[in-house]
Amino acid sequence: MVDSFTLQVASALVSAIMMISLFLLYRASSRELCLLDWSAAGLLFFLRNCLSVAYFVPQLTNLVSGAVVNALYLSAHAAILVGVRRHLGLWPGWPLVGALAILVLGLNLVPAVQQSVALRLMLMLPLVLLLCLATLYTLWRAPDPQMRSVYLLLMGIELLFSLQLLVKIVLVALDPDMPLTLAGDELLQTSGYLAMSAFIMLTTMACALIVIRRQELELRRASDTDPLTGWLNRRALQRIASHEFARSDRTGQPCAILTFDIDHFKKINDSYGHTVGDEALIHVTRLAQDVLRGYDYLFRIGGEEFVILLTDVQSAELSAVASRLRRKVLKQPFMYGQLQIPVTVSVGYAERQLNEDWQTVLDKADRALYHAKDHGRDRVSFYNADNMLQWLR
Questions:
Q1: How many CB atoms lie within 10 A of CB 290?
Q2: Residue among 346, 339, 334 at smallest CA distance from 278
Q3: Residue 57 class from Cβ within 10 Å (0-12 exposed, 13-18 middle, 19+ buried)?
Q4: Strand 345-351 with 339-341, pairing
Q5: Nearest to 307 by CA among 323, 292, 324
Q6: Does residue 30 sit in helix, strand or coil?
Q7: Hey, what's the torsion of the CAs at 313, 315, 317, 318, to 10 degrees?
Q8: pLDDT (tens digit, 0 to 9) for every residue of the chain, 393 residues total?
Q9: What gap in Å lies between CA 127 and CA 98, rounded to an integer?
Q10: What does the domain layout of the chain look like in residue ranges?
Q11: Positive or negative CA dihedral for 380, 383, 384, 385?
Q12: What is the C-alpha to C-alpha distance for residues 202 and 200, in angstroms, rounded to an integer?
């Protein structure tokens, strides 16, 4: 069996790798402040393991404080939780980490605790277990499904480490007289050192993957998003519409496409300038979002042309959405400073019929839109159940 000293040295090296690699990754991605928290966790693990290594040096044994070792170890696990919370936009909680470290230091200075490794373990292990479970729970509650795969990796690591902590707690509770020392070679301790090294190494990988995945998604969103309105662009339309229509084939849920554009938009640009025109586009898209469902897909595919992909929508609801959109824009004129500019939209929509692809439905919605414009603008036109164009006010 590998001796405890070797395992402590290995843990120190792995901790140093965690600290340095995550800090360097932060230097390359300075917006990801969670990397600093996780790098700090590596530093705390490193200091803890350095003190443990120093305990094996006869001249330094009496200088090593078990209280400090335990406080550093607990703080390192807390720093991982802090990084997860910061990554998710929650309050990190570093002051609580400091308070917890002070509490552990105080408990470890109690004479009875100082004289018993088993008692120190029974104080420490449940606290570490709670921190691991808190990290797991926080990730489980994370709202972004696109990040779920990388969260599962860190959740699995925390779960496995929690299980080995639970086993240790049970073993120590069943045999409080177990011959344990800080530098002991008991199976309980050596397996714990090995588990800690594996935990640090795997956590480093998981934390890096979380940041890389988020940056990948941000790049994809940037390439799929219209910078002016924040709506998706034509590039995203092809990918998302193909996916949703394929899902509709599997589930049988209805879907539809609604198109609209701003009436006489060129006149607004020519009369007031492109800056005012851009503000008018933003005004209309904000009004549109107010009347649409939160899960509808919103696209800007041209200058003043917009597409909305609606899933799981019935005919009556679709008609109501289109009418609300037209009325909302009509009743809330665009204000630019003290200037009031009336704005209206023409709307066209089409429901998907059996086996139609999204391009066909979009083409029908476009034809409905131009039908509305040809019949006076500020109207809603659609393809009815007989596949005929008609309009409504």
A1: 10
A2: 334
A3: exposed
A4: unpaired
A5: 292
A6: coil
A7: 80
A8: 457 778 888 899 999 999 999 999 999 988 999 999 999 999 999 999 998 887 776 555 555 577 888 899 999 999 999 999 999 999 999 999 999 999 988 888 888 777 777 787 788 899 999 999 999 999 999 988 889 999 999 999 999 999 999 988 888 888 766 655 554 446 667 777 889 999 999 999 999 999 999 999 888 888 888 989 999 999 899 999 999 999 988 888 889 999 999 999 999 988 889 899 999 999 999 999 998 888 899 999 888 899 999 998 888 899 999 999 999 999 988 988 888 888 999 999 999 888 889 999 999 999 999 988 888 889 999 887 656 566 665
A9: 14
A10: 4-224, 234-392
A11: negative
A12: 6
Residue found by looking up tokens 């204000």 in the block: 335
Give me the phi and psi of 263, to 5 degrees please: -70, 135
DSSP string computed for 193-214: HHHHHHHHHHHHHHHHHHHHHH
Residue with tokens 């550093």: 72
- Separation between Cα atoms, residue 153 and residue 188, nearest integer Å: 26
AA letter at 333: P
> Counting Cβ atoms within 10 Å, is residue 31 exposed (0-12), middle (13-18) or buried (19+)?
exposed
358-374 and 234-251 helices, crossing angle to 10°? 120
Residue where the block lists tokens 């439905």: 361
User: CA end-to-end span of the chain, whole Å?
Assistant: 82
Pick from 23, 25, 20: nearest CA to 213: 25
Q: Which two tokens stand for residue 327?
A: 């009325």
Which CATH number describes the domain made up of 234-392? 3.30.70.270
Are the C-beta atoms of 306 and 259 separated by less than 8 Å? yes
- Strand 345-351 relative to strand 380-383: parallel, antiparallel, unpaired? parallel
For 5: left if phi > 0, alpha if psi spans -120 to 50, otherwise beta; the answer is alpha
Token couple for 221: 């969103």
- Write the Ramachandran bin of 262: left for phi over 0, alpha for psi from -120 to 50, otherwise beta: beta
Token couple for 123 = 């104080």
Q: Are 56 and 8 in contact (CB under 8 A)?
A: yes
* Residue indicated by tokens 């809603």: 380
Q: What is the pTM of this model?
A: 0.74
Q: Amino acid identity of 62?
A: N
Instruction: Quote the tokens at residue 34.
Output: 């969670």
Residues, the chain, total?
A: 393
CB atoms closer than 10 angstroms to residue 244? 19
